[in-house]
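Working notes for the structural subgroup meeting. M.R. asked for a predicted model of this chain before we commit to crystallization trials. I am recording the input and output together here so anyone reviewing the notebook later can reproduce the run.

Input as submitted:
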Amino acid sequence: MDLNGLFGIAWENIFIGLLGAAIVSFITYIYEFIKNKLVEKKFPLSGKYITNYEDIVDGKRVVTTALAELKQKGNKIKGKTWFKDRTWVLNGTIMDTGNIYGVYYSESPWDRGIGEFFLSIDMDRKMFGLWSGYDSANDIITSGKYIFKPIINDVEIVDYNRRYSSQILKISDNELGKDYFDIKDLDFFTDSNTTSFCKIAVIDKKVVGFAMSVVLSLKELLEYLKLDIKDLPKFIVASKNICVIKTVSVDNNFHGMGIGYKLVKSLIDDATNNNIRDFACVAWKSGDTINIKGILEAFDFNAYKEIENYWTEDSIKEGFQCPSCGNPCHCSAVMYFGTF
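Returned structure, recorded in token form:
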């Protein structure tokens, strides 16, 4: 037998086999690559989100707001969500039906929280579903609703300019109550004023929201908030200057897009750039709803005190119409404080 011929045939068969395997692998790779790109185009989920999830706090079921960031590769998503000092890792798979199933677990090795989540994707990249798992904080197995709302990217945050005043006042009348603000209130915010900040959210030259803050001394803060010094957290009492987030208002047609979050972040950035580290915020409460609770908690603010009928006297004196109760206003105020 010709060994050279035998080995030649063997090497030829091996080469053909390897070549065939390489072709199959290449075709499979191209197929998976195209399939993943189609999934990414159909369900583009990479980005930052504001999430709402049902949780148990002090024995009561509440809705908590947390930030999340997702990265996508084909039909796989990975990301993190965090609330105050806790962070969870998310791993999920996107199905052809537009549903996501996945697992979450705590980033900390000392936190045994772990579970699963199931979400359905809608046309606006919002995701609605459920989570279920072990709640290490309460030492129970539980579940709840889970919502992801994408933070919109094409919004521009700019400083106040008088050309925006009519649009701002329209949003104010609709969201805060008729005549709550007038043009004199807006003109207080000027480029030369380093103790006050007014930020405007603009999409395609249209104002969709605004936020205002002012820097006060401790004495001025007590007068403004109508509080006694014993009602303030110690870090605020020890502060010389406090940035008060006075107003955050977003056009009703643009709620749930992260615009309020971006406005508050811009106010915080401006204040911290001017060496102001301590913050206060008066949050409007109507019934059981606190208007910017989720945003403030996302920035690690904490509620310290609730005052009933907080705006009653001012609404009578200034004549503004509360969108919830008209005039006089009987809504409560919840005092939030934070430091950076």
